[in-house]
Design a protein that fits this description.
The chain is α+β, with helices and mostly antiparallel strands. Strands 20, 21, 25, 26, 27, 28, 29, 30, 31 and 32 form a ten-stranded antiparallel beta sheet that branches. Strands 5, 6, 10, 11, 12, 13 and 16 form a seven-stranded mixed beta sheet that branches. It has a five-stranded antiparallel beta sheet with strand order 3-4-7-8-17. A hairpin with a 7-residue loop joins strand 7 and strand 8. The protein is globular and about 90 Å long.
C-alpha cells in the first residue's frame, strides 16, 4: 500500500492546520502560527501543528477512505459518463486510494485567531491522498534524467554554459544576431557545445517542458480571408503547473473559511476568494473531501504592432483563486499563464453587424474548444497533485473572469445595451438599486427564444431578433454546461476599468464642464505634489493617450481642486463616487465596511441630479459602468475583495507574454512566434528552478555524508533544515525597502560602524531615514536667515527646556524662556527625510517610503518647498486607528541636528482645523475633508515650534482652498505660501484615506 508523500529532500510540504497554507517544515509552520499579528495564532497551536506534522509523515492506517468511495451529489454525472469518455479523468487505481486522510478535521467551533478575528473552516474539505508528483518528481522523470545524474545541466556542458545559453534564449536576439555573437573571436576560445543559433534552439527543445502549445485549424461558420488557427494549451496542465510551482507553493490554500470579528459570528470579514460565500457554497455542493480549485480567466484584446501595422492579439490568461491575491497580482511570479491565443479573423461578409456576430460566435467556439476539460473536471472531478506531491480530488468551477466592460458583454452573450451581470438594460443603468442577477437560465432562455423565432444562420433577420432581446448572437456560450458557474457570479468587478477609467471618462469630464476647462486646468497647475506623484503643469483637459496611472493621479486631487467652484450637491456627488472607489479598493472588508460602501454609492444617487442641473450631463444616464457599481457589494460577499480581480496584473502580463515575444520576431506569423518564445522562456525558468533545487539538495547530502557516523546531538540541533527553500530565488520581485528592519538591526548592533546618531530609526508606527551626510552646515542664526525662521533660536531654546522638564511637545508657539542662550551654535541640516509606515490593513507589511521635503528658498524655488505632515499632539494618540484625533497638521520647515548632539529635531508650523457648523466631526459636508488654516499670532506671524522628528506620524498633502475662482496671480511656486486655507487631502493615497476615514467610523 503506497504511502503519502514524505517531506524529505524536496518541496513536499505540510499545511497550516488553520488556514491551509503550505510550508516546507514543521519549523516553518510553527513560526507562521506564532506570528503575533498572524491569522493563525491561538492557544493550542503547538499541539495542533505537531499532530498535523506527524500525520503528514506517518504511514497510512487501516481506517482509510478510498477516493472512489466518495459519494457524488445526485446532479453530478459519474466519471464513466459517456458524455466525457474522451477525457482521462478517472481517479487513480484502487490501491493508490487505500490510505488515510491525513488532512486535519476542522474544529466545530469558531477558533480565535488574533484579537478581533475568529475563523471557521469548512470541515471535511480537501482530503489528501498519496500517489501524486511534485515539481522535482516531474523533473526527475524526464527522458534525459539519466544523463543529468552525471551532468545536472544536460544538454549543456556545465552551469556556466547553461547560464550563457539561458541568457541568449531569453534575449530578443534573432538567430542571425546569435550566430554573429557566437562567431566573435573572443568566444572561439571558449569550449561551447553549440556554435549557431539553431544548435542552441535544438538543445533548448530537449529541456523539461511545461504545458505544451497546440495548434489546430478551426472551421468558422462563414468564409474568412485567411485560415483560422487556434493556439492553446491544455487548461488542466496549466493548473497543474501552477499547483506544482515551487515559488507559489507556500501561498496556495485549499480550505474555504468564514472569518468573523467575534466568536458571536455577527460581523464577517471578507478578503481572499476562499473567505467569500461562493467558495463555501461550492464546497457544499461537492462530495465530502473534494477540493475546490477556483479557476480565474482573463481575456482582452491587446495591440502588438507599434505605431503602424494594426496587429492585434486576443490572449486568454489562466490562474487560480486559491493562490494568495497579493502573490497572484505580482507579474514577476508568473501567477497568470497564457492559456490561448484566440483567432481574430477577417470575415468576407459585406455587412458589418454580421461580421461582428460571426466574430463573437467564433470566440465562444474557440473558448469552448479550449475550456471543455475544465467544464468536465467541474462536473466529475479529477485527481491532481498538490504542491507537496500528494493527490487531491479537485473540481474546477469558474471563480472569476477578468475583463473590461465590452469583453464582459461578449462573455455573458449580451449586447452592449444590457448589463452582463443583471437584467438591467441601458434605460435602467441610472437606477439607484440593483436589478435581479442575470442568471445563466435567463440568458439561455432568451437564446432559445431567439433561435425559435428565427434561424440563427439567417444572420440579418436573426440580428433583428437578438437586438430586441439584448443578445449578441452567440448560440453556444462558453459557460453553458459549466457547473457551479453563473455569469452573474464569475463576472466580477474590475477596478482598472470600472473605477479608474470610469472616473476619467465621466467624473473628470463633468468637472471640466462645471468648472470650465481653463479654470480647471489652472487649478491643477497650481498644485504642489509630493515626490513620486504626478504633477499637471499644463492641466488635465487636453491630455492625450492617458494611462491608468494618469487616471489615478487625477483622482487624488479632483475633489479638492473643484471645491468652491461648483454647487455643493454637485461636489457631494463627485466626492461620494470617489469615496466609493477608495473604500472598494480595500484589501479586506467587514459587514460594517460594506454598509459604509453601499452608503457612499447611495449618496451619489441622492445627489446625481445636481450634475444634470449644472449642465455637465444630459438627462440620460446610460453608463454601463455606473450600473455595474451596484454589483460590487454583493460580489465582495460572494468572492472577496475586488482588488484581486483587477486587470492591472493581466495588462502587465500582456506585455511579457504577448508584446515582448511578438516584437522580438520578424513581424510575421505572430501567434506562432509568441508560442515558441514563451515555450523557450518557460523551459528556461523551470530548468533554472529545478537545477537550483537539485544543486542545493546535493550540497546538503554531501554535508550529511561528511559528518555521518560522528554526529553529536548538538550537531543535530544545529543541522540546517534541508527542506527550507528560498522562495524569493529567481523571483524578480521588487519589494519596498524596510526601514523598520534596518532600524532594528542598528539598535541591536548588527552594523557596528554606523554613524551616530543613527540615520535610520523608528517608532512603533513610523520609520525614518536621513542621508549620511547633511545637506547644510550652518550656525543657528544663519539657518534662521536662510530658512526665514526669525524665532528659530527661541524655538530651539523652548524645545530644550521641554526636554529637561519632561513636558509634552506641542506646537503652541509659547515662549516661556527669556534667555535664548544655547549650548551649541552649529547645526547639521537635512532638506528631506524618508518616512515609512505600516499598511493600514496589514500591520506587518511596510508601505512604500515617502519623502518629506524642507528646501529653503532658492532661485528655483523663491519661497522654498515645504511638505505637510501629521504629528503626534497627544501622548495617548494612536495613528492611524484614531485618525486625526490627538494629532496636528503641520508644515515641515527645517530638519536639523545640533552639532555633537544625539538630538534629531524639526521646526514645524501648525495648521488649525476650521470648525464646520452642523458637523460634529469637523469635516466639510461637500468635500468630506478637513479644512485647515495656518495658525498665526495676533501680529500675523506664523506659529511654529521645534519637535523631535520622531513625533512625525505620516506625510500629508494639502490643496489650497481656491474659492469660487483661483486668484490669477498665483503660481505653482507661490500658491502654497500665499494661501492661508487648505483642504487636508485625504485622497492623495489610499493608506492616508483609510487613516483619516477611520475616525469617522
Amino acid at each position: 500500500m503506497p504511502k503519502a508523500k514524505a517531506n524529505r529532500g524536496g518541496l513536499k510540504m505540510i499545511s497550516c492546520p488553520r488556514c491551509g497554507k503550505r510550508f516546507f517544515s514543521e519549523t516553518n509552520v510553527l513560526q507562521h502560527m506564532n506570528q503575533p499579528t498572524g491569522t493563525c495564532r491561538f492557544a493550542s497551536w503547538h499541539e495542533e501543528c505537531s499532530r498535523s506534522f506527524s500525520q503528514a509523515r506517518c504511514p497510512p492506517s487501516d481506517n482509510s477512505v478510498p477516493c472512489s468511495s466518495i459519494n457524488r451529489p445526485p446532479h453530478f454525472p459519474s466519471a464513466d459518463s459517456n458524455a466525457y469518455q474522451d477525457w482521462d479523468l478517472n481517479p487513480p487505481s484502487p490501491e493508490v486510494h487505500e490510505t488515510e486522510d491525513f488532512t486535519m478535521d476542522a474544529p466545530e467551533e469558531v477558533i480565535p485567531l488574533v484579537p478581533g478575528k475568529f475563523v471557521e473552516v469548512y470541515e471535511g474539505s480537501s482530503e489528501v491522498f498519496p500517489g501524486g508528483k511534485s515539481f522535482m518528481d516531474t523533473f526527475h522523470e524526464d527522458q534525459y534524467s539519466g544523463e543529468r545524474r552525471s551532468n545536472l545541466y544536460f544538454p549543456f556542458a556545465s552551469q556556466q554554459e547553461w547560464q550563457f545559453a539561458s541568457w541568449l534564449l531569453r534575449s530578443r536576439l534573432s538567430l542571425t544576431a546569435i550566430d554573429s555573437l557566437l562567431a566573435l573571436d573572443i568566444l572561439q576560445g571558449i569550449p561551447l557545445s553549440f556554435r549557431t543559433g539553431k544548435q542552441l534552439r535544438a538543445r533548448a527543445e530537449v529541456l523539461p517542458s511545461g504545458p505544451a502549445w497546440l495548434c489546430e485549424e478551426m472551421e468558422p461558420e462563414s468564409p474568412t480571408k485567411h485560415p483560422v488557427r487556434l493556439f492553446y494549451r491544455q487548461p488542466l496542465e496549466c493548473l497543474q503547473s501552477l499547483l506544482s510551482h515551487p515559488l507559489l507553493a507556500p501561498h496556495i490554500s485549499f480550505v474555504p473559511r468564514k472569518v468573523w470579528t467575534s466568536a458571536a459570528r455577527v460581523c464577517r470579514i471578507y478578503d481572499e476568494w476562499l473567505s467569500g460565500d461562493r467558495a463555501w457554497e461550492i464546497q457544499d455542493a461537492l462530495p465530502r473531501g473534494a477540493t475546490v480549485l477556483g479557476v480565474v480567466l482573463s481575456s482582452d484584446k491587446t495591440n502588438i504592432s507599434v505605431m503602424t501595422g494594426n496587429r492585434v492579439a486576443h490572449p486568454v490568461l489562466i490562474s487560480l483563486a486559491n493562490i494568495d491575491a497579493s502573490i497572484r497580482s505580482k507579474t514577476s511570479l508568473h501567477g497568470y499563464l497564457l492559456l490561448a491565443l484566440l483567432p481574430i479573423p477577417k470575415f468576407v461578409h459585406k455587412t458589418t453587424r454580421v461580421r461582428g456576430l460571426l466574430q463573437d460566435r467564433l470566440i465562444h467556439q474557440a473558448l469552448n474548444r479550449v475550456l471543455t476539460p475544465l467544464k468536465t473536471a467541474a462536473t466529475v472531478g479529477i485527481m491532481m497533485s498538490d504542491p507537496a506531491g500528494n493527490l487531491r480530488y479537485c473540481y474546477t468551477p469558474l471563480a472569476s473572469w477578468i475583463a473590461d466592460t465590452p469583453e464582459e458583454c461578449l462573455i455573458a452573450a449580451t449586447s452592449p445595451k444590457a448589463s452582463p451581470i443583471t437584467t438591467a438594460t441601458s434605460k435602467n443603468f441610472g437606477d439607484p438599486f440593483r436589478h435581479p442577477p442575470r442568471t445563466s437560465s435567463i440568458t439561455l432562455s432568451a437564446i432559445q427564444r431567439a433561435c425559435t423565432e428565427q434561424d440563427p444562420f439567417d444572420y440579418k433577420n436573426f440580428i433583428k431578433v437578438i437586438r430586441a432581446l439584448r443578445l449578441n448572437g452567440v448560440v453556444e456560450p462558453v459557460w453553458k454546461g459549466w457547473p457551479l458557474s453563473e455569469p452573474s457570479d464569475f463576472i466580477t468587478p474590475e477596478p482598472l476599468h470600472h473605477f479608474h477609467r470610469f472616473s476619467w471618462d465621466h467624473d473628470t469630464r463633468w468637472c471640466i464642464l462645471a468648472t470650465g476647462a481653463a479654470e480647471f486646468d489652472y487649478r491643477f497647475s497650481l498644485l504642489q505634489t509630493l515626490v513620486g506623484y504626478r504633477a499637471f503643469e499644463d492641466g488635465v483637459s487636453k491630455l492625450k493617450q492617458v494611462t491608468g496611472r494618469d487616471h489615478r493621479a487625477v483622482q487624488r486631487y479632483i475633489v479638492g481642486v473643484i471645491a468652491g467652484s461648483v454647487p455643493r450637491r454637485f461636489l457631494t456627488a463627485i466626492r461620494s463616487l470617489m469615496d466609493f472607489r477608495y473604500l472598494a479598493q480595500a484589501p479586506m472588508f467587514t459587514d460594517d465596511s460594506l454598509t459604509e460602501l453601499a452608503s457612499a454609492l447611495q449618496d451619489f444617487y441622492d445627489n446625481k441630479d445636481a450634475i444634470t442641473a449644472a449642465g455637465a450631463r444630459k438627462d440620460s444616464w446610460e453608463i454601463p459602468k455606473l450600473e455595474l457599481l451596484q454589483s460590487i457589494v454583493p460580489s465582495i460577499r460572494l468572492s472577496g475583495a475586488v482588488m484581486q480581480w483587477s486587470a492591472d496584473p493581466t495588462e502587465h502580463a500582456h506585455v511579457q507574454e504577448i508584446k515582448v515575444p511578438a516584437r522580438a520576431g520578424n513581424n510575421r506569423d505572430y501567434y506562432n512566434q509568441i508560442a515558441r518564445h514563451l515555450d523557450h522562456a518557460e523551459k528556461c525558468l523551470r530548468f533554472d528552478i529545478a537545477t537550483y533545487m537539485e544543486s542545493k539538495r546535493g550540497e546538503e547530502d554531501l554535508r550529511v555524508d561528511e559528518i555521518e557516523g560522528n554526529e553529536t546531538e548538538q550537531d543535530k540541533e544545529h543541522e540546517p533544515d534541508e527542506e527550507e527553500f528560498p522562495t524569493d530565488h529567481l523571483a524578480a520581485t521588487r519589494s519596498p525597502i524596510n526601514y523598520f528592519t534596518i532600524a532594528d538591526a542598528l539598535v541591536r548592533g548588527c552594523i557596528p560602524n554606523a554613524p551616530r546618531p543613527y540615520r535610520t530609526f523608528s517608532t512603533a508606527t513610523t520609520a525614518f531615514h536621513l542621508s549620511t551626510k547633511p545637506s547644510l552646515r550652518l550656525s543657528v542664526d544663519e539657518a534662521a536667515a536662510v530658512f526665514n525662521l526669525p524665532d528659530l533660536r527661541a524655538a530651539i531654546s523652548e524645545y530644550l527646556h521641554r526636554l529637561e522638564s519632561g513636558m509634552p511637545h506641542r506646537v503652541s508657539g509659547v515662549r516661556s524662556q527669556q534667555d535664548h542662550q544655547l549650548p551649541f551654535d552649529r547645526l547639521q541640516i537635512w532638506c528631506k527625510v524618508r518616512v515609512q509606515q505600516m499598511r493600514y490593513h496589514s500591520r506587518q507589511t511596510p508601505d512604500t517610503p515617502q519623502t518629506l521635503r524642507a528646501f529653503h528658498p532658492s532661485t528655483v524655488n523663491p519661497h522654498g518647498l515645504y511638505d505637510a505632515a501629521i504629528v503626534n499632539a497627544d501622548p495617548d494618540s494612536d495613528w492611524p486607528q484614531r485618525g486625526l484625533e490627538g494629532h496636528s497638521v503641520v508644515q515641515l520647515r527645517m530638519i536639523f541636528r545640533p552639532l555633537h548632539s544625539e538630538l534629531l529635531a524639526a521646526y514645524v508650523q501648525r495648521f488649525d482645523v476650521v470648525a464646520q457648523q452642523g458637523n460634529t466631526n469637523n469635516r466639510n459636508a461637500g468635500t468630506g475633508m478637513y479644512l485647515v488654516r495656518r495658525a498665526v499670532r495676533s501680529n500675523g506671524s506664523r506659529i511654529g515650534d521645534v519637535l523631535p522628528i520622531t513625533l512625525i506620524r505620516s506625510p500629508a498633502h494639502l490643496i489650497p482652498h481656491f474659492g469660487k475662482e483661483a486668484h490669477s496671480r498665483l503660481t505653482s511656486q507661490t500658491s502654497y505660501e500665499l494661501s492661508s486655507d487648505f483642504w487636508l487631502n485625504k485622497y492623495w493615497s489610499k493608506e492616508f484615506y483609510y487613516a483619516l476615514s477611520s475616525s469617522s467610523r
